[in-house]
Amino acid sequence: MIKYHHTNEPKDCCGCRACEQICSRHAITMQENAEGYYYPVIDESSCVDCGLCEKVCPMQANQIENTNQPIFLAAQTKDKNILKKSSSGGMFTQIAIHTIQQGGVVYGAAFSESMELRHIRIDNIEGLSQLRGSKYVQSNMSNIYSMVKEDLQRLTKVYFVGTPCQVCGLKLFLRKEYTNLFTSDLVCHGVPSRKIFRTVREHLEKKGNMQMTKYSFRDKHVGGWSCSSSSSSYKSISKKQKYLVKDRQMDAYYHAFISGNIMRYSCYECPFTSPNRVSDITLADCWNIQELDTKFKETYREGVSLILINSERGKALWNEIKDHTVFDHIGKDWAMKNNPQLASASHKGNMRERTYDMALNDYPLFVDTFAPKSLKKTLKFYLAYYIRNNAALYSIAQHTKRLLK
């Protein structure tokens, strides 16, 4: 049986659900705990002790790593429309479009109508907008590995994107190599609690007396290429639309996450924080690329992706899409310095347990703790926001910057 069943230690389970989906006896079910994370529960009367659940567990099985030394690239799509709508340089969308144009399908994380994050299957270019963008909450993988396997067995080309543990869980679940499978993992900071995100969403809806229809963790229209440019959209019964940016509640969620206080316990001991990755191509942000002499000196503010090409299959895929991108080679050490999760797991915040208690039982204190009121910061943000979204003002601001250099 899986290690978690014996230890009951939260750090021993990443919630990928591979054990649940591999069990032909349906002896494993995933149940949400008090913090909002799924953990396996085993019905020992149905279990035949076959050991498959152990073999597919990313937290205890041998890691699936590529033996090739990764190639480190900074890249940006040439399609300005894709670039505007992407969290960084648009590389996911570029690969996904290529896959669908070849008759394939794409699996990635998307919000449902009830704003619950789960992995879904997309087979058309229009549907890719649901998968685009960073999502700082754990995705529900229910039945996804089984669906991927069915597509692969039908010889459909599949592009799967997820956290490293999700990609590893998929590969272990499949138990064989498929030449029609292409994977991308993310340089992951950790997965926050869906229960806390649900709490934030419900309070935002109550505040606006509307139903949330979209949440963007990184909206370039709000703060340009950055980590914390949250926005959300709502609709009322009368179909009136509302667009909300830079709310303190959004800031509180982001700061609680980035400080390491609302992540799953397994994230603090993640075995995948290494430049030797589990996927064909790794996706991340190429932070601080402006420090280097690259092709992005004039365009870095629009967002630049860091990609690691980890396998021969990844190299072949890159060669098929690279003409749609602007790219430059960068050094491994520099890339790792600017993406620390390539070398070490995120640190556990010193308020982790107290943060859950505040978020779920004293929400105003949670917001005040992680997003204290600051009139100066609020005014500075909205000034920059209105300049960025006014073409004439933005042009003047950029011209002034160049004169002052």
In words, what does this structure look like?
The protein has 405 residues and is of the alpha+beta class. It folds into 3 domains: 3-55, Alpha-Beta Plaits, CATH 3.30.70; 71-191 and 263-342, no CATH class; 194-260 and 347-373, no CATH class. The protein has 16 helices and 13 strands. An 8-stranded mixed β-sheet has the order 5-4-6-7-11-12-3-13, sandwiched between helices. Helix 13 (352-361) packs across helix 14 (363-370). The radius of gyration is 21 Å and the shape is globular. The chain starts with a helix and ends with a helix. 43% of the residues are buried. The model has no long low-confidence stretch (mean pLDDT 91).
List the helices and strands and how they pair.
Blueprint: H1 3-7, H2 18-22, E1 28-32, E2 38-42, H3 52-55, E3 71-77, H4 80-85, H5 91-101, E4 105-111, E5 117-122, H6 144-153, E6 158-162, H7 164-174, E7 181-186, H8 194-208, E8 211-216, H9 220-223, E9 231-235, E10 241-245, H10 248-258, E11 281-285, E12 305-309, H11 312-321, E13 325-329, H12 332-338, H13 352-361, H14 363-370, H15 375-388, H16 391-404
Parallel strand pairs: 4-6, 6-7, 7-11
Antiparallel strand pairs: 1-2, 3-12, 3-13, 4-5, 8-9, 9-10, 11-12
Helix pairs in contact: 10-14, 13-14
